[in-house]
């Protein structure tokens, strides 16, 4: 849930990139960090293992100006995708205002993506979030690789709520900013209803 600091006239929102290991969550944040105006973005904090995989989270603070006299700040996090870090994923997900689910489009990754999607839904339910109305964005990443599934298959298995979805190639930035923009707008619409 967004943190509102009345004294500082500041609203902090949290967007979490969720998905299996090596699906491109951290690559999304690296691309955003380079693409956004340096005045609007803070330092990227990343904690990696020796094999360059995210161990805890990546954090990228993003300033979006003012709305109704409040400074709006988005903090972008990624969860570790490795199965062994389930508890860490749960901790990072707490307080999320929006989730961008990054799916690896390769056919060989479908079952892992489905298991990860089911885990996300279960965690949102445990946090008393209605998955059908919670701000979600689906990103079909790695569309440049061989052996990718048709988008219709990904939609069938991973997008039962028909939330906005984007084809992406995070290493080149294709679909990255579009996914983030929809995530930010969904979060802001939710804030307006509070």
From TrEMBL:
Q: Origin, by domain of life?
A: Bacteria
Q: Does Zinc-finger show up as a keyword for this record?
A: no
- GTP-binding found in the keyword field: yes
Q: Which CDD domains match?
A: Ras_like_GTPase
Signal peptide residue numbers: none
Keyword annotations for this protein?
A: GTP-binding, Nucleotide-binding
Name of the featured protein: Cell polarity determinant GTPase MglA
Species this protein is from: Dictyobacter halimunensis
